UniProtKB/TrEMBL annotation, chain A:
This is Branched-chain amino acid ABC transporter permease. It comes from Streptomyces camelliae. The chain crosses the membrane at residues 12-35, 42-58, 64-86, 98-121, 150-168, 196-217, 237-259, 280-296. It is found in: Cell membrane. The keyword Transmembrane helix applies. The keyword Transmembrane applies. It is a multi-pass membrane protein. Its main location: membrane. Belongs to the binding-protein-dependent transport system permease family. LivHM subfamily. Keywords: Amino-acid transport, Cell inner membrane, Cell membrane, Membrane, Transmembrane, Transmembrane helix, Transport. Signal peptide: none annotated.
TrEMBL record, chain B:
PROSITE patterns: PROKAR_LIPOPROTEIN. Pfam families: Peripla_BP_6. Keywords: Signal. Belongs to the leucine-binding protein family. It comes from the Bacteria. This is Branched-chain amino acid ABC transporter substrate-binding protein. Residues 1-22 form the signal peptide. Residues 43-400 form the Leucine-binding protein domain. The keyword Nucleotide-binding does not apply. It comes from Streptomyces camelliae.
């Protein structure tokens, strides 16, 4: 069982990435009750934004310590632009429409963004390599952490702390809470709900962009399809944690990631289960976990704290 | 209200997943119609089905370009009098459903007398019957699953399921054991961790490797199946590290093999990964990074660059100004197309310089008997439609490129 600490770390790292993307799903749902299915693609465009900065703007051979903050800014600028644009042109016109309409729009937008990157980004028809952080892996006890993962180790808690501060302590954050609770009353109290909604989209996109950069650094490659499966997982994480709850999104992500890692590592050791334990079954176990949580705790692990309208 | 919203979420999730999956298999080949019988000459179309976009496009575009070169060469030499060859390429995106749609489209175009492709064995499975019903010949430069030519029971009784299917690549029944013999006898590794992607090609390769490796006395210290859609193999990499394996055998293709190799090394297991021809591509090295040095792959045939017959192909390919590399199957693709061209020539010659009305059936029959010196050596087919040339090569990643280590023919099990 000396494998356990490493597998937990594997799961937590994967889960942090799910969590970063899940925040965007959860915030937008908490405020406008919309499941933004294009959010996975916002994550993807963020990663391509970072690559653009590295490959086409910075001179060759720029040190990663200089490049990384700039790549992060590039990722956030691209992702936020896409998300705010989507909100303005795809979702806002449909805000009073039946809920199915923006959902279908979201799916359409998801495809459109994928195809746009596929068609127009240079050499994006197959995977593109992403720069990596130099330096060897770090070993603590018998746990190894890759340099590419260090970014995630630092960025995920920092992002969460920032978000907690923003939502709990700032005026805008409290405006978000108010809008989530009751948009009409919030409006009467002088909250600019349109602005709040745009901020929710932008903030979610910024986190997705951080996740996108983390993905690139972790796996050393990005592609136009990367947002689909990851977006689906992040959505699952959001539902698992209690959609609408931002801490729930992070927790759901971590639980999902750990479940995947542990199911790959240990299910096969259970007698009679050796056929269901490989990595190709990890997704199945993740979704079984989701179903179980929803059966016994339909509001998700932490329930809805931000949104209480559904 | 809450329950209703949950139902909506679930429905949306399902709808989203279905929509996106379905859209992944859209047919993007836009060519249609035929020009046969125009003026004095006849146009014969050679179809190409390969993944021209997506993860495996490096291999697919190599196939397309090489067939294009064969067609241009035949036209330039005026090889078949009165016949102009034309190629039409369709993208299967490595999806069986797209492959089948493309196959139907080729069948309905009467100028198509032969198809080169596909790349993936799983795609070939979905196409074989469509072509066979139309008696349209299909020559794959890359499929290696034994069942395609020898039937699903090939380990016990061989029987050829479709008479219209041929391939210039050799099979996994040979490739897997060839790798096993190299790993056990030459590289002296006795403990292996076997991973596959559960697809027709990958699982077949892993199985033939495993059976030969254990027969030789090697030990399989662990097995895993991965999901080709994900990029996170960290859990698998940790298992490999803790298994004490000396080598990893991977049955699958380079889009997964590259990240897998990288993550295994990153987890601290400094052991080589060996795969089949689906791994043997420059993109693998790009994806696996610098730690890929020492990784191995077997591929069908001798290295194209070393064969005298291939020098001309390489030179012509360069002169053709193709943007992409001819990749792992370039030589085989050229030979596949050439086999069809030779067959058309024979049929036309036998019919007094004109195409007969049942040209497709005649061409299929003629492919069975072709024999010529191709890019990859002597090209001819046995009673199952398999290449008679059973040469294989082990390549290793050295200095950021694939270098041939050993070439030979597989000596029985």
């Amino acid at each position: 069982m000396n494998e356990l600490p490493q597998q937990l770390v594997n799961g937590l790292l994967l889960g942090s990435m799910y969590g970063l993307v899940a925040i965007g799903y959860t915030m937008v749902y908490g405020i406008v009750q919309l499941i933004n299915f294009a959010h996975g693609e916002i994550f993807m465009t963020g990663a391509f934004g970072a690559l653009t900065v590295y490959a086409y703007i910075l001179p060759d051979g720029t040190s990663m310590w200089v490049a990384l903050p700039l790549m992060l800014i590039g990722a956030i600028v691209v992702a936020v632009t896409v998300a705010v644009g989507a909100e303005r042109f795809a979702y806002r016109p449909l805000r009073t429409a039946p809920r199915l309409a923006p959902l279908i729009t979201a799916i359409g937008l998801s495809l459109a963004l994928q195809q746009a990157v596929w068609a127009w980004y240079p050499e994006a028809k197959s995977a593109r390599t992403f720069p990596t952080i130099p330096g060897g892996p770090f070993t603590i006890g018998n746990v190894t952490i890759q340099t590419g993962d260090i970014f995630l180790v630092v960025a995920a808690p920092l992002s969460m702390a920032f978000l907690a501060y923003f939502v709990m302590r700032t005026r805008t954050g409290r405006g978000m809470q108010a809008t989530a609770q009751d948009p009409d009353t919030a409006k009467l109290m002088g909250v600019n709900t349109d602005r709040i909604i745009v901020i929710a989209f932008a903030l979610g996109a910024a986190f997705a962009a951080v996740g996108g950069v983390a993905y690139g650094l972790k796996y050393g490659q990005i592609d136009f399809k990367m947002g689909f499966l990851l977006g689906l997982k992040a959505f699952t994480a959001a539902v698992l944690g209690g959609i609408g709850n931002i801490y729930g999104a992070m927790l759901g992500g971590l639980v999902l990631g750990v479940a995947e890692a542990l199911s790959t590592a240990y299910i096969a050791d259970i007698p009679g289960m050796d056929k269901f334990g490989s990595q190709s079954w990890a997704d199945v176990w993740a979704f079984i976990l989701l179903i179980l949580v929803l059966l016994f705790r339909p509001q998700g692990l932490l329930g809805e704290r931000v949104a209480d309208r559904a | 209200m809450r329950q209703r919203s949950l139902i909506a979420i679930t429905a949306a999730l399902a709808a989203g997943a279905l929509t996106l999956t379905a859209c992944g298999s859209r047919d993007s080949g836009g060519d249609k119609g035929s020009d046969s019988g125009k003026g004095g000459g006849t146009t014969v179309t050679i179809g190409i089905d390969a993944p021209l976009t997506g993860d495996l496009s490096a291999l697919g575009l190599g196939i397309k370009n090489s067939v294009d070169l064969a067609v241009n060469t035949a036209n330039k030499q005026n090889l078949v009098k009165g016949v102009t060859f034309k190629m039409v390429a369709k993208d299967d995106q490595a999806q069986p459903s797209s492959g089948q749609q493309n196959a139907s489209a080729f069948v309905s175009d009467s100028s198509v007398l032969g198809v080169v492709g596909p790349l993936n064995s799983s795609v070939a499975q979905s196409m074989q019957k469509v072509f066979d019903d139309a008696k349209l010949v299909e020559v794959s430069p890359a499929n290696t699953n034994p069942a395609l030519t020898q039937g699903t029971d090939w380990q016990k009784t061989k029987s050829r399921p479709y008479k219209s299917y041929f391939r210039t690549a050799t099979t996994d029944a040979i490739q897997g054991p060839f790798a096993a013999q190299y790993v056990f006898n030459k590289a002296k590794k006795t403990k292996v961790f076997v991973i596959d992607d559960k697809k027709t090609y990958g699982a077949g390769l892993a199985a033939t490797f495993t059976s030969e490796f254990t027969k030789l006395g090697g030990k399989v210290v662990g097995t895993e199946h991965i999901n080709p859609d994900t990029k996170d193999f960290s859990a698998v990499a940790t298992k490999v590290k803790n298994s004490g394996a000396e080598v990893v055998y991977y049955g699958g293709e380079y889009p997964q093999a590259g990240p897998l190799s990288k993550q295994i090394k990153a987890a601290g297991a400094n052991i080589p990964l060996i795969g089949g021809d689906g791994v043997y591509d420059p993109t693998y090295i790009k994806l696996a990074g610098s730690s890929a040095t020492g990784d191995l792959a077997t591929s069908v045939g001798a290295p194209v660059e070393t064969l005298a017959s291939a020098k001309e192909f390489v030179a012509n390919y360069k002169a053709g100004g193709y943007k992409e590399d001819y990749a792992a199957y370039g030589g085989y693709s050229y030979d596949s197309a050439w086999a069809i061209i030779e067959a058309v020539k024979k049929v036309v010659d036998d019919n007094g310089g004109k195409l007969p009305s049942d040209a497709r059936a005649k061409v299929t029959a003629a492919v069975q008997n072709v024999s010529f010196d191709g890019v990859t050596g002597k090209v001819s087919f046995d009673e199952y439609g398999d290449a008679t040339n059973k040469q294989l090569t082990v390549y290793s990643v050295t200095g950021g490129a694939w270098k041939a280590v050993e070439s030979g023919t597989y000596a029985g099990g």
